[in-house]
Every structure is written in structure tokens, then in C-alpha cells.
Write a structure and sequence with these properties.
Distance between the termini: 27 Å
InterPro entries: DUF3046
Number of domains: 1
Number of strands: 2
Radius of gyration: 13 Å
Shape: globular
Strand order of the largest sheet: 1-2
Pfam families: DUF3046
Protein name: DUF3046 domain-containing protein
Strand content: 5-15%
Largest sheet: 2 strands, antiparallel
Helix content: 40-55%
Number of helices: 4
Length: 75
């Protein structure tokens, strides 16, 4: 997962409150850092996304593959 995919996943799952969750919610699994701090510290976006999902009780069905753009159709 790239950082841009992380951002799309957060927006898709949390909508307008996503930015606040990323900047304010501390994630136990990441040493009580916020998602923003964890990303800045070099934690892979996928790991941060999964920790955010666990902390906010996102259903497992919403966790994998979220944030990816649909592939372009081949001619």
C-alpha cells in the first residue's frame, strides 16, 4: 500500500472525520502514535492502515484492497 492508497482508504472508510482520526487518534499497536506520526516515522502505510482499522473496529471486509484505484481497461 502506498501513502496515496492509505489516504484514499481513510477517505473512503471514514469520510470527513478521516483527517481528524489520522492526526488525533493514538494507535496502541503503533506505540501510542497517531497514524500521521507513524507514517512520518517510516511505518509502512499498510501497517498503519491495519492498526487504524483495528483501533476503530473497521470490519475485516473493509480492510483489504481498499484505496487502490481500479485498473485501466486494456485495449
Amino acid at each position: 500500500m502506498r501513502r496515496s492508497e492509505f489516504q484514499r482508504a481513510v477517505a473512503a472508510e471514514f469520510g470527513s472525520r478521516g483527517a481528524a482520526l489520522v492526526s488525533d487518534l493514538t494507535l496502541t499497536a503503533l506505540g501510542d502514535r497517531t497514524a500521521a506520526q507513524a507514517l512520518d516515522d517510516g511505518i509502512p502505510p499498510r501497517e498503519v492502515w491495519l492498526a487504524l482499522c483495528v483501533e476503530t473496529d473497521v470490519p475485516v471486509s473493509h480492510r483489504h484492497g481498499v484505496g487502490r484505484l481500479a485498473p485501466h481497461p486494456r485495449p
